[in-house]
């Protein structure tokens, strides 16, 4: 199979933690509705859009509860933040419709929303102080490092279980590892592994705030923590090697030159008369500029998160759906998501924004399609555009797809 294999993990019972009473499917496990309700309680968010200004004013008073140094906060273990949550698609058919797509499988965009909410709750569990009813921290998603799927189709009528915990901690950021499993013949089998990075900020979401340090207890946990540190270093290295900051390597220059030579129109007479401007498309190929789809979203209050900005999971769902549509129209057959990488949350999206999404096929190989979705907000009053997110999705099409060919250096 072209899909990467997931290794079935034995979930240690010692880590089994529950929030509140759960569903009939798995007694004691909370569901996604309870996860979101719990988040509202922790932050003290308003349930009514008109009251959000008052709710945010009340949060200002929590500034006094912030730690001045990380050393003042009690260290935590990985199992302290471990959570299990149920999505009862099998045992509660009434919630199925929201998760169903036209192919009678689960909408992956909805799963992205659930992972985002769960990741935030796991971080609040890690940073919870017993004496405080409300958290002074504003915990937001900084990036989705990686999501790898090991099942092509997610069934719409079998219960899903999410598990996860904090796997690495910096001064103000936390890495969260989550796993999704689905019930088949009485056993939960793995569907995906996800790694998110969350950042903690002050009650008004203006400045970074310290989080509890993490202490690995076993050799296995030491390894997980070390991997988190490596992931952080890789991200720093990747951002400094950006083409906007650094020239291409010798290998990259050769690739660009080869593409250029392969698309030159050499039918003109003699070597000296070949025009650099005259380009031809190789057989079974598509110019990159012709492999785009665009979308627009008006950001209504319904899509806001607990901090009254647009919910990161909603942005991921919309970007994924445009990415899927771009892959579908490019390949001419149903695409399946294989992995999600490097979703950067650069700026929050305010309620009322016009969100412009642009899907671009940026690489193809056999029946794989790599899609980049660029998201920006347009402020109608100032007429300014600001990039908010960049998303990367890898799809596998049912059939082999044409090769995508760049025309310009950019």
From TrEMBL:
- What Pfam families does the database record attribute to this sequence? 4HBT
| Residues in the signal sequence | none
- What keywords tag this UniProt record? Hydrolase, Mitochondrion, Repeat, Serine esterase, Transit peptide
Q: Return the GO cellular component terms, semicolon-separated.
A: mitochondrion
Q: Which Gene3D superfamilies match?
A: Hotdog Thioesterase
Localisation: Mitochondrion
User: Which GO biological process entries does UniProt record here?
Assistant: acyl-CoA metabolic process
Per its UniProt record, what InterPro entries does this chain match?
HOTDOG_ACOT, HotDog_dom_sf, Thioestr_dom
Q: Which PROSITE patterns match?
A: HOTDOG_ACOT
Which domain of life does the protein's organism represent? Eukaryota
Q: Name one GO molecular function term.
A: fatty acyl-CoA hydrolase activity
Identify the main location: mitochondrion
- Boundaries of each HotDog ACOT-type domain copy? 81-204, 289-401
UniProt lists the family membership as follows:
Belongs to the acyl coenzyme A hydrolase family.
Q: What is this protein called?
A: ACOT9 thioesterase
Species: Sterrhoptilus dennistouni
């Amino acid at each position: 199979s072209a899909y990467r294999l997931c290794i079935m993990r034995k979930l240690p019972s010692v880590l089994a933690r529950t929030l509140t009473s759960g569903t009939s499917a798995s007694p004691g496990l909370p569901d996604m509705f309870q996860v979101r309700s719990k988040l509202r309680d922790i932050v003290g968010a308003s349930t009514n859009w008109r009251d959000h200004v008052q709710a945010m004013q009340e949060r200002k008073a929590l500034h006094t509860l912030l730690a001045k140094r990380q050393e003042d906060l009690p260290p935590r273990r990985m199992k302290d933040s471990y959570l299990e949550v149920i999505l009862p698609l099998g045992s509660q058919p009434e919630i199925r419709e929201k998760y169903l797509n036209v192919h009678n499988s689960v909408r992956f965009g909805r799963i992205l929303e659930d992972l985002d909410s769960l990741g935030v709750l796991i971080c609040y569990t890690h940073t919870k102080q017993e004496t405080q009813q409300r958290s002074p921290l504003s915990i937001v998603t900084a990036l989705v490092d990686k999501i790898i799927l090991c099942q092509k189709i997610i069934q719409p009528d079998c219960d899903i279980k999410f598990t996860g915990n904090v796997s690495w901690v910096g001064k103000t950021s936390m890495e969260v590892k989550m796993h999704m499993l689905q019930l088949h013949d009485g056993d939960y089998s793995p569907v995906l592994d996800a790694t998110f990075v969350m950042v903690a900020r002050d009650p008004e979401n203006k400045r970074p705030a310290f989080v509890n340090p993490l202490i690995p207890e076993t050799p296995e946990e030491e390894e997980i923590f070390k991997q988190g540190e490596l992931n952080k270093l890789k991200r720093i290295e990747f951002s400094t090697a950006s083409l906007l900051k650094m020239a291409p390597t010798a290998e990259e220059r050769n690739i660009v030159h080869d593409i250029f030579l392969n698309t030159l129109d050499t039918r003109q007479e003699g070597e000296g008369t070949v025009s650099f401007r005259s380009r031809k498309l190789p057989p079974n190929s598509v110019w990159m500029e012709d492999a785009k789809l665009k979308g627009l979203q008006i950001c209504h209050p319904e899509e806001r998160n607990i901090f009254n900005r647009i919910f990161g999971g909603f942005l991921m769902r919309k970007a994924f759906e445009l990415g899927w549509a771009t892959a579908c129209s490019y390949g001419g057959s149903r695409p399946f998501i294989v992995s999600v990488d490097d979703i950067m949350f650069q700026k929050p999206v305010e309620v009322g924004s016009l969100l412009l999404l642009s899907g671009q096929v940026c690489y193809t190989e056999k029946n794989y399609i790599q899609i980049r979705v660029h998201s920006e907000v347009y402020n109608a009053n100032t007429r300014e555009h600001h990039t908010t997110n960049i998303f990367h999705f890898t799809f596998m099409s049912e059939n082999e797809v044409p090769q995508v060919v760049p025309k310009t250096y950019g």
